[in-house]
Amino acid sequence: MARKPATPRVLVLNGPNLNMLGVRDPAVYGTATLAEIEALCAARAATLGLALDFRQTNSEGTLIDWVQAARGSAAGIVINPAGLSHSSVSLLDALLLTELPVIEVHLSNIHRREPFRHHSYVSQVATGVIAGLGPRGYGLALEAMAGLLAAREKATEKGTVR
Ligand code: DQA
């Protein structure tokens, strides 16, 4: 009898200053608050059959601790690393260590902004990057993650992935 796969737990991590959404530069980041983005993610995760763990921190160390803890406890990571995208080799190293699928999200299109935002260390480990679509990008990232996890599950059943 085919076993029913457990509900995959997906971490949605948000880096520094994203707690200020709603008041932070609305011309760039829009008017949605992080709580509203979390609600959007919760609704999307429910329809996709994912268990959502949504978090934000202003601390690079805390973000790295969460990423490390995801190894063995989460199925995948959706991350908006915020300013740490452009500066943190340590966050990249932690994400590499987890060996989990990663999707990177930015509310704004970082490639249309200042040159220092054009490079993201995190992109090096991300399966995909969504930038410039506002809060909708989070929903699209969850949808893509559900697809990646389903494909992985199928490959595991066939014995092509262990
Ligand atoms: C951001 C883009 C980053 O360059 C910036 O530092 C942020 C937010 C975005 O979601 O568009 O804090 O990640």
Structural class: alpha/beta
Order of helices and strands: EHHEHEHEEH
Q: How helical, in percent, are the residues?
A: 25-40%
Q: Main β-sheet, in a few words? A: 5 strands, parallel
Q: What is the fold named in CATH at topology level?
A: Rossmann fold
Low-confidence stretches: none
Number of contiguous helices: 5
| CATH homologous superfamily classification | Dehydroquinase, class II
Beta-strand portion reads: 15-25%
Task: Give the CATH class.
Answer: Alpha Beta
pLDDT average, as an integer?
95
Radius of gyration (Å) = 16 Å
Bound ions, cofactors and other small molecules, one mention each: 1,3,4-trihydroxy-5-OXO-cyclohexanecarboxylic acid
Task: Give the overall silhouette.
Answer: globular
Describe the secondary structure blueprint for this structure.
Layout: E1 9-14, H1 26-29, H2 34-48, E2 51-56, H3 60-70, E3 76-80, H4 89-98, E4 102-106, E5 128-131, H5 136-157
Parallel strand pairs: 1-2, 1-3, 3-4, 4-5
The structure holds 1,3,4-trihydroxy-5-OXO-cyclohexanecarboxylic acid.
Short key terms for the protein model shown above:
5 helices, binds 1,3,4-trihydroxy-5-OXO-cyclohexanecarboxylic acid, five-stranded parallel beta sheet, 162 residues, alpha/beta
